[in-house]
Amino acid sequence: MDVIAITGAGTGLGKELALQYAGQGHTVIALGRRISPLLDVVQEINQLGGKAFAYSLDIRRYEDVVNTVDMIAKHHRVTCLVNNAGIGHFGPLSSLSVQQIDDMIQTNVNGTIYMTKAFLPYFLTMPKAKIINIISTAGLRGKVNESVYAATKFAIRGFSESLTKELEGTNISVTAVYMGGMDTPFWHGSDHIKDRLRLRSPKEIAKQIIALEHGQNEMILS
Ligand SMILES: NC(=O)c1ccc[n+]([C@@H]2O[C@H](COP(=O)([O-])OP(=O)(O)OC[C@H]3O[C@@H](n4cnc5c(N)ncnc54)[C@H](OP(=O)(O)O)[C@@H]3O)[C@@H](O)[C@H]2O)c1
C-alpha cells in the first residue's frame, strides 16, 4: 500500500481522491492551507477504518513547503504526490487584478513546482514513486475568459512533459491529468460557468483517475 500526499485535499477533487485512495487501503497525507476541512477529511477516513494525516501548508511559499515536506518525510514513507491544489479567476484579462493574476501563477505554477521539487529527493530513494499533476482541459486548449488560468495550466503541462523526459529510466513516473469542468467549491463566487448542472462530479473524476492511472504520462478525461 502507498502513502499518498494530496494537495488541496480538504475540498472538491482532492477530498474525493483522499477518500477513495484511503478506501483502497492507502494512507493519505492531506494538505492545504485551512486545517479544518483537512481534519474533517481525516476524521471521515478514520471513521471508515482508513488511515490519514493532515498538515497545513501554503504551497505558494517555498520555505513552508520544504519545512512541511521534511516533517512529513520524518514520519511517513510517501511514495505518491498528487499536485491537485489550484485556483481560478475568470473573465476578460482587463478585468483581472494583478493580485488575482499573481495568486493563480503562484498557486498553480509555483506551488506545483515547489511541491514536486521538495518531494523529489525523497522519491529518488524509494524503489518506486509517482507524481500526478491535476491539470485541466484548459492546459490543452485556450478558452475565452480563461487566459491566465489557461496559461498556468499550459505551464504545468510543459513542466509535466519535461519532467517525464528528465525522469525517464528512473523509479519515478509523472502523470498529467486533463479533465473538464467539475462541480466543486472551485466555482463558488464565480459566474463563469452558466449551468453547473452540466459539470461532472468530482467523485466520478476521482474514480476514473484511480481506476485508469497506471503511471502513464497523460490521462485525458473529457
Ligand atoms: N472544478 C473544475 O471545474 C476543474 C476542472 C478542471 C481542473 N480543475 C483543477 O482541479 C484541481 C482541484 O480543484 P477543485 O475543483 O477540487 O477546487 P477546490 O475545491 O477549490 O479545491 C482546491 C483546493 O486547493 C487548496 N489550495 C488552494 N490554494 C492553496 C495554497 N496556496 N496552498 C495549499 N492549498 C491550496 C484549497 O484549500 P485551502 O483554500 O484550504 O488552501 C482547496 O482545498 C485544481 O487544480 C483545479 O484547477 C478543476
Automatic annotation (TrEMBL):
One of its GO terms (molecular function) is oxidoreductase activity. It comes from the Bacteria. Keywords: Oxidoreductase. The keyword Oxidoreductase applies. GO terms for cellular component: membrane. CDD domains: SDR_c (cd05233). Gene3D superfamilies: NAD(P)-binding Rossmann-like Domain (3.40.50.720). SUPFAM superfamilies: NAD(P)-binding Rossmann-fold domains. InterPro entries: NAD(P)-bd_dom_sf, SDR_fam. PANTHER family: DEHYDROGENASE/REDUCTASE SDR FAMILY MEMBER 7B (PTHR44196), DEHYDROGENASE_REDUCTASE SDR FAMILY MEMBER 7B (PTHR44196:SF1). Belongs to the short-chain dehydrogenases/reductases (SDR) family. This is Short-chain dehydrogenase.
